[in-house]
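The data layer described in this paper is built around a simple, fixed record for each protein. We quote a single record here, exactly as it is kept in our systems:
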Amino acid sequence: MAVHEAQSYKDPGTFEEQSRRKFLANATLAAGGVITLVLGVPLVTSLIPESLLNPGKSSGGTWADLPKSQFDKIAAGGDPIKITFDFKYADGYFPPEADEQFVWGIKLTPEQERNFKARRPDLYALETRVEYPVITQSYVIFSSICPHLGCRFAWVPDAKRFICPCHGSQFGPEGAKLAGPTPRGLDPLPFREKDGQAQVTWIQYKSGQAERLIVSYS
């Protein structure tokens, strides 16, 4: 009686055939991964606001008008002026919502402008600089958020400096750190004048560290 040797369900073939099949399988998986990555990147990036994909560029945010009656007080020179304005905040796919915010603006004297870089080296150093002009036509607009822990500071005329009531951080009129636990000076915001209208882009930076990291744009 003939003895038949049991055969596997599927013959694996020779070593060369196995290697060829393994190569083709790996190539197919690799190609599929590339296609998934290529198709997935636009989907992921479409979920992220364009402003956050291009941090540091004021064009990524929206320009909000500063009330002329308030801005004219800055143009007159002197102490920094608080300016309250409305802006629209967009968050992903949600419709833009109107919000109220305020900033501090100052028109630098010729001497302040000449010495600004020396007094605010943090705005020009590699790790802490901003990617937009800090001074525009002698004007500087500061965020009203203290870089220490996010409280709101105010200009104190008698002391001739900005003072945060929460933890005592103090800043000069150019925003330079003078005292307190703040890790950096005040954060300037993008500013421009277009067709006679003063405009600002609201940016929120991360508090509590020397490096400027953008948390959100308006």
Residues 15-46 form the longest helix (32 residues).
